[in-house]
Structure formats: structure tokens, C-alpha cells
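Aim 2 progress update. The chain analyzed this quarter is reproduced below.
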Amino acid sequence: MTLVTVYRTLSIADAQLVRSRLEASDLHPSVLHEIASVSLDGYSQAAGGICVQVPDGEAVAARELIESKDDLIP
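Predicted C-alpha cells:
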């Protein structure tokens, strides 16, 4: 299974909000670089941010949900 990055941010809270919304929509997201960004100052920026990834077959649906950000907050 290939994972595709569908969202990047420097905020752990933002990444977790997106992950939570994707999970609520029956997708299978994971968050990459989250722990390292807390452990090492500046790591998340140097690594290109905290990434939210989904399986490649779910990428289109995930991006559509993310682009409709108004729906992320109830």
C-alpha cells in the first residue's frame, strides 16, 4: 500500500484536526513527523512539515474533504 501526502502543516493540532475529519469520513489517514517535530526544535519545518497521508486510492476523496475546510469544523 502506497501512502500519499494530502496535507502539510507546521501545527500538530491542525494535522490532528485534519486526520480526525478524514477518519470520521471512513478514510485511513496517518500523521508523519509529528513526534519528531515535538522532540527537535525546527525539525517539522526542516522536514517539510507534519504530513497527513492516506492510501493512494483515498487521496482524491481526502483532498476534496480538505479543500472544503468549512466542513472541517462543525
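The chain has four helices and three strands. The first helix runs from residue 12 to 24. These observations will guide the mutagenesis experiments scheduled for the next reporting period.
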